Amino acid sequence: MISIWFFIGISMLVNGALILAAGIYQLVNPPANPGVVLFNLHANVWWGAALLVFGLIYCIRFAPRRQT
Amino acid sequence: MPAMAMDVPTTRLVHLSAVDVVIIAFYFGLVLAIGFYLRGRAKTGEDFFMAGREMTAWVAGLSFLSANLGALELMGWAGSGYQYGILATHWYWIGAIPAMLFLALVMMPFYYISKTHSVPGYLKLRFGEPSRAVSAVSFAFMTVLMSGVNMFAMAKVMQIVLGWDINFSIWVSSITVAIYVALGGLRSAIFNEVLQFFLIWAGALLIPILGLYEAGGWTNLKMQIAERTSEQYVHLWSGLGSFTSNPMGIHWTGIVFGLGAIISMGYWTTDFLVVQRILAAKDIRSAEMAPIIGAGFKMMVPIIVILPGLLGLAVLPVKLVPESVAAVTGGHSYNDVLPLMLARYCGPGLLGLGITALIAGFMSGMAGNVSAFTTVWTYDIYRPFINSTGSDHHYVNMGRWTTVIGVLISVGTAYLVMQFASIMDYVQALFSFFIAPLFGTVVLGMLWKRATGPGGFWGLLCGTLSSIGMWAWVKLDPSALRYVALSPHAKALAQDMYQALWSFVVCVTVTVVVSLATQPKPYTELTGLVYGLTEVPSIGDVPFYEKPIFWAAVVTGIFILLNIIFW
What we know:
The complex is a heterodimer of chains A (68) and B (567). Chain A has 68 residues and is mostly helical. Chain A has 2 helices and no strands. The model of chain A has no long low-confidence stretch (mean pLDDT 90). Chain B is 71% helix and 0% strand. Chain B is globular and about 65 Å long. With 567 residues, chain B is mainly alpha-helical. Chain B is built from 23 helices and no strands.
């Protein structure tokens, strides 16, 4: 049976990748009006990266083939 | 839960980008995929209704916590954080932690050893059929109504925050929940609750991080709040010496005895919606550890719920107002603070994740209600009173159909609330009537050998009726608040605390008096159900750091420390 933690990993991995991609796009093409406070911190870049790494670790650690 | 009455939609609070919509769509795809995948694992009654009783302590513990971490709770308590300050944290600390530890160490062994499918099922074993009937019917009725009320409230939130059509929100969410619960049963609901737990933290944790950065740290935040409001917004206990010296209008006795000793005990130990998750644990040690793990994380939830409310007090340029005022002026209400903070800090992608977290919280809350309703209907109403000779396969099919019907009743309730908004307040109040007396009945049943069937039944009935009576008294004559809540200054939350306390006292008193006047059950029939007549199975020869009592002590220590730090 596929572990619940694998599904968590998939969710974090995909969400992290999407958020990171959106963040990098905004980093390369800064909007004239960012619309958020503290835009200069580029939270979607580092938060997206953190989620991506977290999800990747969970996906590898709890991949179905590794379940006993 | 603070009432969230939403009257008039205003301009939408946030606008989603394409990547936000993709993130939300991915969530719906993932939960449906989980439901279809788990379909093959829900063939027997134990699988469908009890998730095969094979959940680990971590899965059961996070699911136990998530069942109470719905979107309306998040938004409502963030609003309470803005309205009442750090006092709202009491509902997460003294209003949860002692009760969760009590469930783990004292009550869980009896639930688990009795192998009951539900809380009403335990009442049947301990007090007989009449007590089960009262508890099961009231729980099933109220659970499905609450599900509908929450469905409407969330659809309204989505209309206000995102501008989504109410019908779209109601039908998309309810069809999704009906599919994945009907396919995978409780296991599917639990999986999605654990997923929701991670989504909520991933989606909401940035708000306090960026908010504290903007405010210049905790010390500066406290100073800014004190300047804008008063010192008492950042103190947990020091303003509770009188009803008038704190923003909530409550005395410490209400918090300690009403909230800590009765309401939270009733909710966390006898509300089947949350207890069902623990009953699915794979062994006695996991069943005891699960609420302790839940308690550990519960202490941290104020970081993503109360702290955003406090930050809103300091950094938001607009002043938030009560719902009734916002409805007239078109401004933002207290309950808007979380979406406002989300929109303040979260750009494309992050906003989608935050909204997904709210949707996930709402849907898993509905799934929790529906799965609990399905179990109680099938095992505590349909099987004993309508068809007691069906096969296991028959009851699983009944469970699947009940899931669909339960969702449809919830949808019907949502549309009813849309027509008659005041129903929402009545249903939320009604639900609270059953919690405190039920706790009195269950805890006496577990801890007092002499409690009898008639004692349990009449105690539960009288306690519930007294709670309804006090609520109706204050409704008809508001000046009665001085008697029920001990002060004419008491706010709604304070009234709930004292109402629960008195109904518990009535329940216990009636149970004791009737029990002493009636014939007790032979002790041989109480084995496995009552303290002193039950040998609790050993959790095995495990090192001290794997013992529930060790982690309960750790959680207790942190709990005490936090209360002292924020005194």
